[in-house]
Structures are given as structure tokens and as C-alpha cells.
Amino acid sequence: MFHALEECQQVIENAPHLCNALPCMTPCFNWFEAVYFWMGLKLYDLVAGPRLLHLSRYYSAQESVELFPTLARKGKDRTLKGTVVYYDGQMNDLRVNVGLACTAALAGAAVLNHAEVISFLKDEGCDRIIGAHIQDNLTGKEFDAYAKVVVNAAGPFCDSVRKMADNDAKRTICPSSGVHIVLPDYYSPKGMGLIVPKTKDGCVVFMLPWLGRTVAGTTDSSTTITMLPEPNEVEIEFILDAICDYLNVKVRRVDVLSAWSGICPLATDPRAKNTESISRDHVVCEDYPGLVTITVGKWTTYRSMAEDAVDTAIKSGKLSPTNKCLTYNLHLIGGD
Ligand SMILES: Cc1cc2nc3c(=O)[nH]c(=O)nc-3n(C[C@H](O)[C@H](O)[C@H](O)COP(=O)(O)OP(=O)(O)OC[C@H]3O[C@@H](n4cnc5c(N)ncnc54)[C@H](O)[C@@H]3O)c2cc1C
Questions:
Q1: Which atom of ligand 1 is nearest the CA belonging to 297?
Q2: Cα of 18 to ligand 1 centre, how many Å?
Q3: Taxonomically, which superkingdom (predicted)?
């Protein structure tokens, strides 16, 4: 049922790898930072256990600039003491997304992209959702799909879907905009990223090699929900300003090849009594019978999000699965 198979093929051809291990450098400008990051990242190695990609290690200032030639050795009032390099997983989200859809289809799911839920079907007493009315946005055709449980995984849009079930549903999403810019490849060496966990403004900034270019980011500011979020000049300048503090070259506005913005759904649990607890951990709830909502979370935790959503759906629909959730060890198509 996949629409636009050629779109999927293009994604796979342009990004043949699902993911890779990327060394990331954290600059230290005083000895306290060096010990603090070294200990923190050694703890990270320990927690990774058998899944550790490579051990983190300390590099002197001289070794660091050899590894990352654009890294500033001297700043305004500071001198680079060294860096701690650790390994992180880097993945292509488009490619993993297509891999997930193909894996689901192979397991028997009917997968349909470019399709939108426009209303819900309810039982006679309007006590429970029993399906969804769907519009195929490529053909304009509308149709109904019936289900024992519906899972709402609409990310930042999940409140508008909850409102289709119950117009009085409380708003839970606090949308946050994250902007990234793309720079020419010479700003970062081929196999090494730079991550600053806390800039002078208290933000995280990074520069990572990405598909033959350098990607730098990010911002984290509240925004409104729209289908096509766009980065603005202030956000682009903010990133340029933040990375310039750590480089021995001036990154100019004309060097920005492209920029994009994405909306992160941060949320309060609809069952919470107040709105103080904005969460970056995923939230699963069934606040209308038959509709399970899963939101917030990260790609990093998507398998555990899926497991929690499926377990909640099993309870809601009183389903009798033949096996336990397989998500934890499931290989994605293309994962080899
Ligand atoms: C800038 C940025 C940087 C990030 N960086 C990282 C990172 O480094 N590591 C990490 O782990 N995570 C990262 N994340 C988080 C991760 O990308 C999000 O958590 C994830 O995309 C949320 O996934 P989701 O499936 O819940 O929502 P989405 O990816 O937003 O998907 C929701 C989908 O629902 C669809 N939809 C909406 N309404 C309807 C409807 N009525 N009917 C049918 N479909 C509908 C939308 O079209 C969309 O495709 C980042 C996010 C952003 C924005």
C-alpha cells in the first residue's frame, strides 16, 4: 500500500547506511572541565556496558587541533587545555524511518503514507473509538478503517488528533523549535564531530560531519505548531555566533548552504494536576477510551516508546497477543 515508492528508493540510494559510530570531541578550557567531562564520559562508557562503541579518551590541546583543525586553541580569555573524545551513534532519520515502514510491511502491517486521520469513528453510545476516517492526501479519496484500538503517534500534532476524539481535551504539547544549519565540509574533519555541552548561553552546540557537509545546531525555543516550520535569521545567527566561539575561523552567513527547523513535542501528561512537569521523556496515555496517545521521547528511545504504546494498546483493547513485544531485538530491513 506504500505510496511514492520511488521517494523511498531515493532515500535509500542517497543514504545507504542506517547508522554509524561517530567520535565526538568535547573541548575543555580549564582543568576542572577536563576532569568533569572525562569522568562523566567514562561513566557513559560504563553504562553502555557490552554495547559500548569505543572507549572515550582524553587528547592534549596539540593532539586535539591536529584532529579538528578548525578548533580554536585560544579564545577571548581562555586557552584550550584539551578535549575528551567519546563515541556516539549517528543515524539518518529518513533512512531509519523508511526501514521501519518496510519492516512493518514485511511483518504484515498495511502501511500508508500521505494519509491523514480527519475524524474518528465511535460506537453508538460514543463511549469508545472504534476506528478512523482517513483521507489519502495524494488521491483525495476518503475511507474508514476499523480497529480495536487506535494509537495516536502524531508527534507535535497529537493534541489536534486528541481534540478530534474529545473537543474538550486539555492541550498538553509545548512545541519547541530546533534549527540546524548546513555548512561546507571544510568546517569539520571527515570523521569527527564537535560537541559543546554548555555554551556561555547555557545551550548545547555541535558541528557534525553529515553527508559530505557539516551540520551545526541547534536552538531550543518555544514556537507555534505548523506543518512547515521555517528557521528565521535570528536563529541562524544564534548558531553562527555560538559555534564561532570555538573555532579559529570566522563562519560567515554566506557559508550557510541551507537551514531547517523541526518541532520537538515537549508535553505535560494530560492526567497531571498542574502544568509544571514539562517532560522530555515519553508520555503514554489513554484519555479517551480506545485512543492511546504516545508522544515526546526521542529517536534514541523509540523502541521503548513503541513497547509502552503497544502494552497500553493491549490493555485498552483487551487483546490476546500470541507473543511478548519483539521490538527490543527486532532487526530493521537494511540494518545489516
Ligand atoms: C530539531 C530536532 C532535533 C532532534 N534531535 C534528536 C536527536 O539528536 N536524537 C533523538 O533521539 N531525537 C531527536 N529529536 C527528536 C525526534 O526527532 C522526535 O522525538 C521524533 O521525531 C518524534 O517522533 P514522533 O514519531 O513522535 O513525531 P513526528 O516525527 O513529528 O511524526 C508525527 C507524524 O504524524 C503525522 N500526523 C500528524 N497529524 C496526523 C493526522 N491527523 N493523521 C495522520 N498522521 C498525522 C505527521 O505528518 C508526522 O509524520 C529531534 C527533534 C527535532 C525537531
A1: 19
A2: 18
A3: Eukaryota
- 214, 207 in Cβ contact below 8 A? yes
Range of the domain at 280: 114-172+268-319
> Per the structure, how many domains does the chain have?
1
pLDDT at 237: 94
Grid coordinates belonging to 57? 579518551
What's the pLDDT score for residue 265?
86
The answer to whether position 47 is within a domain reads no
**Residue 261 contacts by C-beta under 8 Å, 6 or more apart in sequence?**
177, 178, 179, 180, 223, 229, 230, 231, 235
Q: Is 298 in the pocket of ligand 1 (CB under 6 A)?
A: yes
Does residue 58 line the site of ligand 1, with CB under 6 A?
no
Which residues of the chain have a pLDDT value below 50? none
Measured by CA distance, the residue closest to atom 36 of ligand 1 is: 154
- pLDDT tens digits for 102-114? 999 999 999 999 9
Residue 23 has what pLDDT?
Answer: 95
Rounded to 10 degrees, the C-alpha dihedral 18/21/26/31 comes to 160
Query: Domain containing 122 — which CATH number?
Result: 3.50.50.60
Neighbours of 89 (CB within 10 A): 12
Q: Please tell me the predicted confidence (pLDDT) of residue 76.
A: 77
For residue 153, the ligand 1 atom closest to its alpha carbon is 26
Residue 85 included in any domain = no
Of the residues 119, 238, 299, which should be mutated to test ligand 1's pocket, given the most ligand atoms within 8 Å of the CB?
299
Strands (DSSP E) contained in 29-114 are 57-60, 82-91
Name the residue of 95, 157, 173 to mutate for ligand 1: max ligand atoms within 8 A of Cβ.
157
Residue 174: CB atoms within 10 Å:
17
Atom number, ligand 1, closest to the C-alpha of residue 295: 26
Cα 265 to middle of ligand 1, angstroms: 8
Using DSSP bridges, classify how beta strands 291-295 and 150-152 pair: parallel, antiparallel or unpaired.
Answer: parallel
Residue 290 falls inside a structural domain:
yes
Task: Assess if residue 299 is contained within a domain.
Answer: yes
Could you report the per-residue pLDDT of 108-162, keeping only the tens digit for each? 999 999 999 999 999 999 899 999 999 999 999 999 999 999 999 999 999 999 9
